[in-house]
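REQUEST ID: PR-0412
SUBMITTED BY: lab tech R.K.
PRIORITY: routine
TASK: structure prediction, single protein chain
INPUT:
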Amino acid sequence: MSGVAPAPAGAPTAGAATASGPGAPVRSAGPVGAWALPLVTLGFSIGLLPALVFVVVLAVFVVVGLATGGLGGAAIVGFLTTLVGGGAVAAQPWLVVVPVLLGVVAFAAGIVGSVVALRRRGHPAPHAVTWSSAGIGLVVQLFVNGVVYFVLTFVVAAVVDGGTGLVFFGGDPAPLTVFVLCALAVTVGIGWLVWWLFGRVFAGRAQRASR
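STATUS: complete
OUTPUT:
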């Protein structure tokens, strides 16, 4: 007969961790960021950014209208007429509406999906990790992908006879495809790194606060 008394019923055994709680082990947030940041970036680029630019431009015209009276009001009407009533937008408004809606959906999917996934992985602060990572990740990937774009532009211009245009490589599909793949790889990598970093930061804070 052993001299060790059995553990009370319901008590955790040695080496076992509770499934939840502030002091529970937290799984890495990196894999979540690998798919969340590309969704957030796509949504911001084709949905939120165009809408934000429109609002800012419209606000500028409104301020000018208030400051200059009738002249500013005429400028506002002319701006809206040109934007909505002319060209491809008037003939096919879905060319603008559909990308913006898809962008909003992609952005929401990245944010909400990250929060849900982090909560399932046991993170004590899924909202804080998500919003901090998304904000920093957007800025960092924009800078890095901008560098990649210009480097690739100069490389293509040096290799291809006659060079290519600076805007989307003059429409050449080959370098454009290479850039899209490079940008995707960069965004996935930055997403993994940023989510992993903030996941550790907020998990550490929660563990220290629980002591």
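NOTES: DSSP finds six helices and no strands in the chain.
REVIEWED BY: pending
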